Structures are given as structure tokens and as C-alpha cells.
Amino acid sequence: MPVNAEQQPVPAILEYIPYRKRDSSRARDELNHPYMAGHGYVCARVDMRGSGDSDGVIVDEYRTQEHEDAEDVIAWLAEQPWCDGKVGMMGISWGGFNSLQLAARQPPALKAIISASATDDIYVDNMHYMGGCLLGDNLSEATVMFAFNSLPPDPQIVGERWRDMWHERLSGSGLWLETWLEHQRRDDYWKTASVCEDYSQVQCPVMAVGGWADGYTNAVFRLMENLDVPRKGLIGPWGHKYPHIGVPGPAIGFLQEAVRWWDHWLKGQDTGVMDEPMLRVWMQDSVSPAASYEDRPGRWVAEDRWPAPEIENREFTLRGHHLEEVGSDADPHGESDAEVAVKSPLSVGMFAGKWASYAAVPDLPFDQREEDGGSIFYESRPLTEDLEMLGLPQCHFEVSADQPVAMLAVRLSDVNLDGEATRVTYGLLNLTHRDGSEDPSPLEPGKKYRVTVPLNGIAQTFPAGHRLRLSISTSYWPLVWPSPEAATVTLTTGASSLSVPVRSPRAEDARLREFEEPEAATPLEITQTEPGQHHWRVTRDLATNVSTLEIANDQGAFRIEDTDTHIRRGTEEWYSFRWNDVNSVRGETRTVRRIQRQDWGAEVTTNTVLTSTPTEFIIDAELDAYELDAQRGDPRVYSQSWHRRVPRDLV
Known about the structure:
With 651 residues, this protein is α+β, with helices and mostly antiparallel strands. It contains eleven helices and 31 strands. Strands 2-1-3-4-7-8-9-10 form an eight-stranded mixed sheet, with helices on both faces. Strands 24, 25, 26, 27, 28, 29, 30 and 31 form an eight-stranded antiparallel sheet that branches. Strands 11, 12, 13, 16, 19, 22 and 23 form a seven-stranded antiparallel sheet that branches. The longest helix has 16 residues, at 64-79. The chain is globular, with a radius of gyration of 25 Å. It starts with 9 loop residues before the first strand and ends with a strand. The model has no long low-confidence stretch (mean pLDDT 96).
């Protein structure tokens, strides 16, 4: 807090997360909160119930108890003598989600929010499902929370109660993966915390932030379109990180932007922030898929409102194996409409990258020629001039399938002069969800259906001479769990099309106010004691026909000097399949988390395996907890295993 806040009360800013403020998220938060305190704000970081050093047990995400607790925290902050009664809320990922959700609950003291890498629709745009398809990140995110929820509170904060609190968590938090798999359609479980169910409930100003390498940018467009409050949207080239530490770069002076926002809405100062365009995005230049992604070339562009009336939808018809722009000259290839069948090998998707990039480069998509060999694709003629897109493309298909459950993975790529294909955006559709995800219905084999596949939002320049490529496959493993039986999908070319949002360059883009260079508070003093490693490796054993994507996200070990606390943190993941057997797919994750000081320590390991049959998902999970005390003969203090079977629900 500011040094004079007791004498001159100031607004408060809340970040409310389950990621352990004292150790795990501390290095990031030390950059942010002291910076804002230095600009006249009290900043509160709160361990949610059942996490970090708070009492209780956390049993799921975005539940009513979480929101009621946050309302209590906001009311408490507003009543403190160092607070002037106004509270803002900010966060990234979970903290961005509950900032939006609390805004919809309208606690009186909450006056504005900043929501980064979050969504208004928990089912449509989260790490669980996409287009009615089960995401591989569902297992990955469940693994993250499995590890976090099993860690103890710090006895320096909670005292001798720490052991009892820890065991309450170990036995009570449960297996979240099972819960998420039990809700495979968009039911009330997902709707309850989805702000999109009633945008009018949000009554305070909203800044929504995202990155093109992240998984949450679609929500920024929806919030700009549907909210009826003062709002700003910002989308950069970044992955799942705050923009001042964002990769791929360029990073920006995001904390300066946050202070401008808070000064306007919490202090009533005219900072000019609301005189600027509603939506500002990074228009990405074309890059090779093998290029370094430390920085993504491009430029900033802006729109005063969304949807922007100047943006035109341009339509391309699928004809033969080509994308023909509607209204252009007659098809020069002389190819008639046709029915084209595709039954993709399971290897399509091994170079797709992660749904939400945390660590660009290795988790971003690679050259799509590796994927397109198992797909059908349609390519435009070389562009005669630069083509810029901003918004959300869509595909409209006429399709049939030979199985009652089938899926489509659709990718739009930029094909350069060397033939390299860089994926620009993609979309997924479980065809049983063709009429929505609340009440899916099986396909009638052989029957033709009209379906729409929305693609993720983009801002992208396609240079003259390059080609657009639309690729379609029936699998995309491990980004997406495959259908219960391998399906052949047949597409009618002349009755299918791609619609893209085209934005012409404008002179005023060059006159936009430039963002400042990133600033932050003094970094936390940390000493690395064991090296980490990060890799994505694809292997294929030709003797067994087993292919595996192996992911290591190992941060090694480090010491937080302020508390003399040693932290060890590592996660490994394996996603495999055998030849084209859709029921051979297997996802496995392992984690290790260790917290230790001279007089205290704990280590938790987890292992989760997800497999499937045509009718069930099968979960096998293990949790082991150790108290690191030299006096104990057997340091293991808790062990639990799970074997669960969850029926497939048209997924």
C-alpha cells in the first residue's frame, strides 16, 4: 500500500486466485502490485478458500462459494480505514474469470475491472471443450489444479494448524477431471458462471485483454459487442501472460495502461483512456512456421466500435480443390462440384501446438504441411495484393458422415512462396453439436447436414503472392480427443464456403498513441538451484506403430530469498496413439511439487492417465504426499488412488 494510505485513503485493487500468493505466483505478482501501490493504490492478493494459506477446501472452479467469499473480501476492503471505499478487480486466467463473474454480481464497492486471458462463456471458450469437442487441455488443466490443491499452507502464516489443514485438502478436494468429464454438453453446470447468459448483469467498466497465441481472444470480441458499459479491448501477439511480460513480443507498458484505467475509474482523473478507440489489436505480419516467435512482426490497429462497420465479409467457395472468391472470374480450373470424403489418420494434430500457449515457441503450431497430408484442403490463387483480416472467420459446409458421432477440425493457413503453411486460425465442431451444445443429437449416417464451423478470431496480413489454404480433417489429436469410432466425413464442395472479415489499411492506424515500454516493480529475489527444462518431442516407433508427443514443463528448483523457501516444480505429459486406432489414444500427466525450509517441508506427486473406449472415458489417478522431516521413518503421510469410468455423451 502507499506509505500515506492510513492518512489519505485510496482505492483498493483485488487479485483473487488459487495459485498460492506466498510462493507460486509471487514472482509475477511482485512485478505488478508494488508498481500499482507506487501509483496510489492499495493492492490485495487473496488466496481463495482452500488454496495457499487460506482455510477450507477448494472443490471446483467458479462456484457460488468462491463468489460469495470474494464479495466478502470486496466489502471488507471498502470498509478499511486506508481505503476510500472504491475497489477494482484484476487478474489473468482464473483471476480474469472471476473478475468478470464478480462484476456480474454487482457488489456495491466494485467500480471497474481488468480481465486478462479469460472468457464470458465457460463451455465455449475455456480449456475443457471447444465446438463440443473434448480438448486435451482438459486433462492438462485438471493436472495443474490436482497439483496446486494438494499443497499445504505455510506454518509461518497459519501456525501449527498447517498439518490438519493440509490433510483436509488432501482428502477433500477431489478429482476435478472426473467432474469436468461428467458435463460434456453445455448444461447448467457451465452456464451458472458464464457472464454471456446475461451481459446486462455487468454494470461496471470492463477492460478485456487477450493474446493471439492464447485461447481466450474470442471473448474480447464478444464483450466489446455485447456489454452495455464503458469498455476497452486489447489483443496483442502474446500467449497466456500479462502484456508487460508477454511472449511472443512485443511486450508493452501494460501496467502504465492499467494505472491509466484505474486513475480514470477509481480516482475520477481525466487520463484520456476513454477518448481512445474501443478495440486495439496487433495486426500480425506473415511469418514462417519455423521462425523464432520471440517477437511477432506486425503493427497496432484500432476500431472505435465492434462490430466495425468498415470490415467486410469476403466469401470463398470450395470448388474442386480450390478456394474461389465469390464474384471473381469464372473458375479457371473447369472443375465441377463434387463430394469429397476424408478419414484422417490420428497423426493429424501432432504439430498443432497447445490450445493456449504458455511457453511460445515449442507449443505453437508448426508447418501445417505435416498436418495437411492427412486432410483435404482448398487453396486460393496467389493473392494479387495484400489481404488483411480482422475478426472471426466462419466456414459453412454441407456434410454427411458414416458414423453417428464425428468431428471436423478446420484450419486457415498462410502459404508462403516457399510452400510453407503457417496456421493462422482454426475451429472445431463435434457434428453432433451442429445445432448447439445444449442438446446435441447423433448424426444419421449418410444424411446431409448444413453446418457452420466458427474459427477463432484473427488479425492477420496475407501478403501478395501468398495463398490462403483451408484444411479439413476428422481428427486433431492430441489437441482434441478423437470421436469414439473413426468416421469418414463427406463434404459437398460447391455447397461449402469460407467467409473471412477483411479490413482495409487506414492512415489513422499510424497515428495511434504508442504504448510505452514495459515497466514493473523490482523483481523478486530468486536463486535458481536446479536447472529446468522445457521441450515438445514427437516420436514414432515404427516397430510398434506408436506415436507420442512428450511435453516437459520443468521449472527446476529455486529459492525465494525473502522467506528462504525452496520450491521444486515440474510437470510432464505424454499423449500417444497406435496407428489409426482411435481407442488407443492415451493421455498421461505427472507432477512433482516441493516446498521446503530448514524446519519444514512437503512434497506432493500426482499421476493421471486418461483413456477411452467407444462408450466410456476411463480415469486412473494417484496422489502421494510426503512430509519432509528427517525424524520420520516413512515420510509419506497420505496416498490415494482413483479409478473412474464416465460414459461418453456424444463426444
